[in-house]
Amino acid sequence: MLPFGMLGACAGAYGLLTLPTTPVLLTLGAFTMFFGFRNIYGLQPAGRLSRAWAIPAGLAGGGAGALFGAGSPPYIMYLTGRLLDKGAVRATFRG
Predict the structure, then answer these.
(1) Pair 81, 45: CB distance under 8 Å
(2) Which of 26, 56, 18 lies closest to 77 in space, CA to CA?
């Protein structure tokens, strides 16, 4: 996930400098609502995610981290779909 997180961070930083403010704020609102509703309604993947999902999770997490300052939701979504034990998710994500 690290190389793709770095690429996503570069894209997010570029977007932060070049994109107009209103669409970025609307995207932040949609991003926050999606993650919140996902947690409220307990939407989880049916099975275990494959390792290939690390690519979009890294890109989205890096981009969101650079653009919004909150990149952890895509990482958490990936890790909860990949690791079955919540304790392992917490231990993996501690920084």
Answers:
(1) yes
(2) 56
Q: Give dist(CA 84, CA 15) in Å, integer.
A: 34
Cα angle value 80/86/89 (rounded, 5°): 60
pTM of the full predicted structure?
A: 0.77
Q: How far apart are CA 38 and CA 50, in angstroms?
A: 20
> Looking at the predicted structure, is the pLDDT value of residue 93 above 70?
no
User: How far is it, in rounded angstroms, from Cα 53 to Cα 15?
Assistant: 23
CA separation (Å) from 5 to 14, 34, 37, 54? Answer: 14, 20, 24, 9
With 0-12 / 13-18 / 19 or more C-beta atoms within 10 angstroms meaning exposed / middle / buried, residue 70 is middle
